């Protein structure tokens, strides 16, 4: 499989390039997917599969940076879908649980109605719809990604080391997804599947507060040092913060049937922190 990784400097992009050392890897400087002319003129000859890990992922900033979010998250995938149709490669596009409103009572299936709450989710939903026009495509939704770079776990590990006592939301639930696990799943699915799949860490869902206490405990801190706060209470402290889904738990059964076995997120958290990946950069 001759692969191309876009967004190679992001958390998932780094994991994909580590798993696919022979892949052609592009940061935004190498290929800006929001630039229609750049994508149309790019040489994709010999490429069998393109992994699109490029995205505007700053959820709060997207509320103010609407054009920038839509340029990367919606127009970019549309440009890639056009290229996929011309060049015949499989387009593997990574999306998010933010395309849903989080009101579902249990794990959210792939065919749940799209109902984004904010600019980030709306732009990612539009990107998904664009990718579906590619003759050979794969849309993989994930949640709470943790990899090489800044993320919730690295932030909590830093706060634990600094002696902080943070307030963390306790009424948003999900499952963390560690970037190397997600990269392996994407590679598996790219070789066998088409359509839309949900891929996250496995195991019992956890609140953001619960995840923070797990990190604190592994860093030698008392989990009670993490104070629970409601979404409404947290939003009151941060005017302009984007709305987030209360339920980010995605149904993994379709991916499981396709041969993807994701490790329990607690096991991946142990490996991540033991490797020193929770050290803030």
- Point out poorly predicted stretches: none
* Share of helical residues: 25-40%
**Main beta sheet strand tally, sense and closure:** 6 strands, parallel
Shape: globular
CATH superfamily of the domain at 3-151 and 175-204 and 248-263: NAD(P)-binding Rossmann-like Domain
Number of helices: 11
CATH topology of the domain at 3-151 and 175-204 and 248-263: Rossmann fold
By DSSP, the count of extended strands is 12
Secondary structure: elements and pairs:
Blueprint: E1 3-6, H1 11-19, E2 24-26, H2 36-40, E3 49-52, H3 59-62, H4 66-87, E4 90-96, H5 119-131, E5 137-142, E6 145-146, H6 152-162, E7 167-169, E8 173-174, E9 177-178, H7 179-190, E10 195-198, E11 206-207, H8 208-218, E12 227-229, H9 231-237, H10 253-257, H11 265-274
Parallel strand pairs: 1-2, 1-3, 3-4, 4-5, 5-10, 6-9, 7-12
Antiparallel strand pairs: 8-11
Helix pairs in contact: 1-7, 4-5, 6-8
Characteristic key phrases:
single chain, 281 residues, alpha/beta, Rossmann fold, 6-stranded parallel β-sheet, 11 helices
């Amino acid at each position: 499989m001759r692969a191309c990784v876009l967004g190679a400097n992001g958390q998932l992009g780094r994991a994909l390039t580590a798993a696919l050392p022979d892949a052609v890897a592009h940061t935004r400087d190498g290929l800006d997917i929001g630039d229609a002319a750049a994508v149309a003129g790019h040489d994709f000859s010999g490429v069998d599969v393109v992994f699109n890990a490029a995205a505007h992922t700053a959820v709060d900033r997207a509320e103010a940076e609407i054009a920038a979010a839509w340029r990367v998250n919606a127009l970019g995938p549309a440009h890639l879908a056009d290229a996929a149709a011309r060049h015949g490669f499989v387009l593997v596009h990574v999306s998010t649980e933010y395309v849903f409103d989080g009101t579902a009572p249990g794990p959210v299936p792939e065919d749940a109605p799209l109902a984004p709450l904010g600019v980030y989710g709306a732009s990612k939903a539009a990107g998904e719809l664009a990718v579906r026009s590619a003759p050979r495509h794969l849309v993989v939704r994930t949640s709470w990604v943790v990899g090489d770079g800044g993320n919730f776990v690295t932030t909590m590990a830093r706060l634990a080391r600094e002696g902080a006592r943070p307030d963390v939301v306790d009424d948003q639930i999900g499952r963390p997804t560690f970037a190397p696990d997600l990269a392996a799943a994407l590679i598996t699915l790219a070789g066998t599947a088409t359509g839309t799949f949900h891929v996250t860490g496995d195991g019992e869902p956890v609140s953001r507060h619960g995840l923070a206490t797990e990190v604190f405990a592994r860093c030698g801190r008392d989990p009670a040092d993490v104070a629970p706060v409601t979404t409404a209470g947290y939003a009151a402290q941060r005017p302009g913060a984007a709305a987030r889904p209360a339920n980010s738990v995605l149904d993994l059964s379709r991916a499981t049937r396709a041969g993807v076995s994701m490790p329990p997120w607690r096991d991946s958290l142990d490996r991540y922190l033991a490797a020193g990946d929770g050290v803030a950069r």
